[in-house]
Design brief:
Order of helices and strands: EEEHEHHHEEEHHHEHHEEHEE
CATH class of the largest domain: Alpha Beta
Number of domains: 2
Distance between the termini: 14 Å
Number of strands: 12
CATH topology of the largest domain: Ribosomal Protein S5, domain 2
Low-confidence stretches: none
Oligomer: single chain
Shape: globular
Number of helices: 10
Helix content: 25-40%
Mean pLDDT: 94
Strand content: 25-35%
């Protein structure tokens, strides 16, 4: 057994998020295009010297006070499931260094779980087959299987069925975060309330978006970005509307709420263009945002880095 393993955990964005009628099991069917972006948490695991798994969380520029450190934490759940799969009775000491905003719509908890799977598999030298890793990931949450793979991919089912997408080029994202997180479950409830008794159509992915990705066309991709949860997220956080508007008025190729929010995303041509959008967002006194970050995409999923 190794003494320590460190894994990277990239954030994800949804270039398109189609949401269908809530199912009997409480989940909504999704048709989504995921992209992993170069904003990373870091998960470190070491032998604990006892059967108990222990977790500590540190924030680098983000508030981690709401991150659970007990059995409900997804990364700890991932460790427990992988240990049970292989009959490992050695606990781990896990440290998560968070740079991804908490409850920000960027899959911070899911990607930490994916990184925990990768890190513990390396620590214990269990060499879990990829299909089994995906099966464990799907038990943890809808976004976790994609967070294992990264890149650009299509998600179906409740998001856990992942297929690599044909995509060219690299993209720059301006990420405007909020100090106040937003509950994904509450946004889905608002989505259901907004539709009432009306039948929600089956979710789809726009052909224009897939064509833009195949061609590596940033401008066309910006025009094709969609998020069926955005209206519900804006009902709960109406101040985000101004943020999106300012970004679009200041040359962003596209703007949308990240997943269930409240993080907002702006698509840029390159790093210089991202800096221009950043400057505009910072200059507007009416814009409510906490931190503005840049990230390039796509990047690989959870990986051992040390």
């Amino acid at each position: 057994m190794r003494n320590e393993v460190v894994a990277s955990a990239p954030a994800k964005v949804n270039l398109s998020l189609g949401v269908g009628q809530v199912r009997r099991d409480g989940y909504h069917p999704l048709a989504t295009v995921y992209q992993a972006i170069g904003l990373y948490d870091e998960v470190t695991v070491r032998p604990a010297g006892s059967p108990e798994h222990r977790l500590s969380v540190a924030g680098e520029g983000v508030d981690v006070s709401a991150v659970p450190t007990g059995a409900t934490n997804l990364a700890l759940k991932a460790t427990t499931l992988l240990a049970a799969r292989h009959g490992v009775d050695e606990g781990v000491e896990m440290v998560i260094r968070k740079r991804i905003p908490v409850a920000g719509g960027l899959a911070g908890g899911s990607t930490d779980a994916a990184a925990a799977l990768v890190a513990c598999d390396a620590l214990w030298e269990t060499r879990t087959p990829r299909d089994e890793m995906h099966a464990i990931a799907a038990k943890l949450g809808s976004d976790v299987p994609f967070c294992l793979d990264g890149g650009t991919a299509i998600g179906s089912g409740r998001g856990e069925v992942v297929t690599p997408a044909m995509a060219r080029g690299h993209y720059w994202w301006v990420i405007a975060t909020s100090a106040q997180g937003q509950s994904t479950a509450e946004v889905y409830r608002e989505f259901d309330r907004m539709h009432g008794d009306r039948q929600v159509p089956e979710p789809t992915i726009p052909d224009e978006l897939m064509s833009a990705l195949r061609g590596g066309d940033v401008e066309k991709l910006g025009l094709a970005l969609t998020n069926d949860l955005q209206a519900a997220a804006l009902r709960l956080r109406p101040e985000l509307e101004r943020l999106l508007t300012v970004g679009l008025e200041n040359s962003a190729h596209g703007a949308l709420v990240a997943g269930s929010g409240p993080t907002c995303l702006f698509l840029a041509e390159g790093e210089a263009h991202a800096a221009q959008i950043d400057w505009a967002l910072r200059q507007d006194a009416e814009v409510e945002r906490d931190t503005i970050l840049f990230a390039q995409a796509p990047v690989p999923g959870a990986r051992v880095i040390g």
